[in-house]
UniProtKB/TrEMBL annotation, chains A, B:
<protein>
    <submittedName>
        <fullName>MarR family winged helix-turn-helix transcriptional regulator</fullName>
    </submittedName>
</protein>
<dbReference type="InterPro" id="IPR036388">
    <property type="entry name" value="WH-like_DNA-bd_sf"/>
</dbReference>
<dbReference type="InterPro" id="IPR039422">
    <property type="entry name" value="MarR/SlyA-like"/>
</dbReference>
<dbReference type="InterPro" id="IPR036390">
    <property type="entry name" value="WH_DNA-bd_sf"/>
</dbReference>
<dbReference type="Pfam" id="PF01047">
    <property type="entry name" value="MarR"/>
</dbReference>
<feature type="domain" description="HTH marR-type">
    <location>
        <begin position="32"/>
        <end position="134"/>
    </location>
</feature>
<dbReference type="InterPro" id="IPR000835">
    <property type="entry name" value="HTH_MarR-typ"/>
</dbReference>
Length: 156, 156
DNA sequence: CCTCCAGAGTTGACGTGACAACTCTAGGGA
DNA sequence: TCCCTAGAGTTGTCACGTCAACTCTGGAGG
């Protein structure tokens, strides 16, 4: 058979260390964001996206589209962030929620966090990444994203 | 400055596509496990670890060590899995919990799931991975795991 | 005009993950 | 003997993420 039913030991080894490296790295970055800036990675993503928006105000659906998140995830996240006064939801006069924007506190938080986060990514990721490793990872990432997105589109 | 304060655009591009590739890939594998075998990735990890254990029975702390999880996470996971009758906890005569093992249902589930999961990893990961990409990724993974674990040890 | 429906947004339930506080017990000195 | 501390294991609390079900509104078409 050209397609063995299970993986070779060295494939398991590669797979496990790859998964673990990812896990450790993202946990590290998450913790740093929390410790140094008091926000989580999810909050950071939302804040950055809103911050990049031209008017600093977006529809929930745009936000979901832009983040690649499900709308319910965005709604839950916004509820938590509204409680923490990082964002506010604007309503039309009937009380229907129509858009989201940064509060002053939210704006301060991102602008503060974004430099530190970039610095951490550089330290933990790019500084130990040889050029051919970067090339390999980049190529693999693009392949993978394209392939899975293609499968989702055709499967839908 | 040798160390710029923020990342180059192509670095952001690499970082973002890498994060997204991870996210899509693990979500894909998770869903397949859930759909085809009715178990989650976390449950699968626990079941596989117990299944590999010589006597099929481990201490909670061994399990935590082997999975690289915090003990509280393991305890919560075991509670859920005990409710689903995938594992059982053994007690000494004073009622103190002393070990964990697979139930028959748990054993069936892993043995059933493991081939399918390996197949999916092969399809989604290894089949699109050129040998030199595999080598680069493997090298990077090992570096990263070692470095972060070293930092944790010294930081503690 | 009325109905129905598609899309936006929310909510609830549940599993996952991190962190801190707690209980219990065995073992090691004073 | 008694204390007491280290380790095992649990529990509570909170944030995150997914799925399904729900509400509301603005049209398109009868």
């Amino acid at each position: 058979m050209a397609k063995p039913r299970t993986l070779e030991p060295e494939q398991w080894e590669l797979w496990n260390s790859w998964m673990q490296a990812q896990r450790l790295l993202t946990r590290e970055l998450d913790r740093a964001l929390q410790r140094d800036h008091g926000i989580s990675k999810a909050e950071f993503s939302v804040l950055v996206t809103l911050h990049r928006a031209a008017e600093g105000r977006m529809r929930v659906s745009e936000l979901a589209e832009s983040l690649g998140w499900e709308k319910s995830r965005v709604a839950h996240q916004l509820t938590r962030m509204e409680n923490r006064e990082l964002v506010d939801r604007t309503e039309d006069r009937s009380g229907r929620r129509i858009g989201v924007g940064l509060t002053a506190k939210g704006r301060d938080s991102v602008e503060d966090a974004i430099l530190g986060h970039a610095e951490n990514i550089r330290r933990h990721f790019f500084d130990t990444l040889a050029p051919e490793q970067a090339a390999a990872i980049h190529a693999w990432s693009r392949q993978t994203v394209d392939r899975i997105e293609a499968r989702c589109r055709e499967g839908a």
